[in-house]
Specification:
The protein is an alpha/beta fold. It has three domains: 136 residues, Immunoglobulin-like, CATH 2.60.40.3670; 180 residues, von Willebrand factor, type A domain (Rossmann fold, 3-Layer(aba) Sandwich); 82 residues. It is 37% helix and 31% strand. It is built from twelve helices and 18 strands. The strands form three sheets. Strands 1, 4, 12, 15, 17 and 18 form a six-stranded mixed β-sheet that branches.
């Protein structure tokens, strides 16, 4: 059962996998979904303040990657409005500011020519992404404002030096400047780029075909235009007798919250970053419940804190309430909407476990886990996810490793596909709330 909150342009509700629980149940596992969905409303959008960080290492000349990057950045420049700001930085062994936001405001044509000539920059051929990030952050700081959407767009195709520094830079800017990451090809460190995006509340993209770079830049820009809330976070106060087992971001992307632990006051804080309008943004908590006497029980109090355009410091609340009962017949069925997301999170978890098993040389375990994940996607009717998992499983069976180019490509494709939540019909959440 949910006690939802709808305030102004945002809906926030709590849904549990079951509304009724047997009073005698020992260590009962309950899934709690906390979901926010801002509604599209008229009015101004947040102006952009972007730092575009481009890898110009030697490998970027492969497959015309730089050509597609130039096309994508040129498109982005053309879409910027008069209130938007953007700076462009290239990096290899060194970093160079290709264009400041002032230069972009004054002469777009000149900046476009500089982007076309990005291959002429004398900055070496290595990969020092941290230097590019630092230079771009310095440019973004010049126009930083909580009334702007401040973000880095980082594109790379290779392993970088000083990986820890890159991640630390992303984490340090959390709540101020988010980092969307775009990995091209198969040579980059996908775990690093994923963690950078997760730590800052932004997006990770895998780009197998360089020809899709302009389209992905366009998609990222559309998402930026649709951001309705910034600096969002959930705080969940668990009632006595309720223990947290795991916490996941469940939509629009799936990943675990690492080291998510309630404090001494049983308060759990989870950062969400930027939230787009008309897009479900949710957290899935795996709870373990103790037996209780029959009656209505509040398991958790959830608060969503966020900033909206022209309205910082907002808060929405929702309570998670269930009924303990002695009547087995009153327990009823599990909530289909919640369990659909539980299944998707479980499938993504199995894929990750399969990857770890393969990395340790246990290919039998890896293929078995992938088989279980495939059964799950087939049951849910997720055709694309099934296809990429089958391709990955077949490649692993054939090569008995993840070292081949084909296997690594299939792995990255599977990771990217399974991270994206495939939702049920949105009407089903309305039905769930009305039951």
């Amino acid at each position: 059962m949910s006690v939802p909150h709808v305030s102004g342009s945002i809906g926030f509700h709590a849904l549990s996998s079951r509304d009724a629980i047997l009073s005698s149940a020992e260590n009962f596992v309950l899934y709690l979904l906390l979901e926010a969905q801002p509604h599209a409303v008229g009015g101004r959008r947040l102006p952009l303040n972007l730092g575009i960080v481009l890898d110009r290492s030697g490998s970027m000349y492969d497959e015309q990657r730089l050509d597609y990057v130039s096309e994508a950045v040129t498109y982005l420049i053309d879409q910027l409005g008069p209130e938007d700001r953007a700076a462009i930085v290239a990096f290899a062994d060194r970093a160079a500011v290709v264009a400041t936001s002032d230069q972009l405001q004054q002469d777009k044509a000149r900046v476009k020519r500089a982007i076309d000539d990005i291959d002429l920059l004398e900055i070496g051929g290595g990969t020092q992404m941290a230097l590019g990030m630092e230079a771009a952050l310095a440019e973004v700081e010049k126009n930083y404002s909580p009334d702007r959407l401040n973000r880095l767009l980082i594109l790379t195709d290779g392993q970088t030096y000083e990986e820890r520094k890159c991640l630390d830079l992303a984490r340090k800017q959390h709540g101020r400047i988010s980092c969307s990451t775009l990995g091209v090809g198969i040579e980059f460190n996908e775990k690093l780029l994923m963690e950078m995006a997760e730590a800052s509340g932004a997006n990770y993209h895998f780009i197998n075909d360089p020809a899709t770079i302009p389209g992905i830049f366009s998609s990222e820009l559309l998402g930026l235009r649709n951001v309705a809330l910034t600096n969002a976070r959930m705080e969940v106060r668990l009632s006595a007798g309720v223990e947290l087992k795991e916490a996941y971001r469940a939509s629009p992307q799936i990943y675990p919250f690492k080291n998510a632990l309630p404090n001494a006051e049983r308060l759990l804080s989870l950062a969400l970053g930027d939230v787009e309008a008309e897009t479900a943004t949710s957290v899935l908590l795996v709870l373990v419940l103790a037996p209780r006497n029959p009656g209505r029980v509040r398991l958790a109090q959830a608060s969503l804190y966020y900033d909206a355009p022209s309205a910082p410091g907002q808060c929405a609340k929702a309570d998670a309430v269930v009924t303990y009962t002695l009547d087995r017949g009153a327990v009823g069925k599990a909530n289909a909407y919640v369990m659909n997301l539980v299944d998707q999170v479980s499938i993504a978890k199995m894929q990750s476990q399969a990857e770890a098993a393969a990395a340790s040389g246990n290919m039998d375990k890896a293929t078995r886990l992938l088989g279980n994940a495939i059964s799950g996607t087939q049951r849910l009717g997720h055709t694309k996810a099934t296809q990429v998992l089958v391709s990955l499983q077949n490649e692993m069976k054939k090569t008995q490793s993840l070292e081949s180019r084909a296997a690594k490509t299939q792995l990255l494709t599977a990771q990217a596909t399974l991270r994206k939540t495939q939702m049920l019909d949105p009407e089903s959440v309305k039905d769930a709330l009305q039951e």
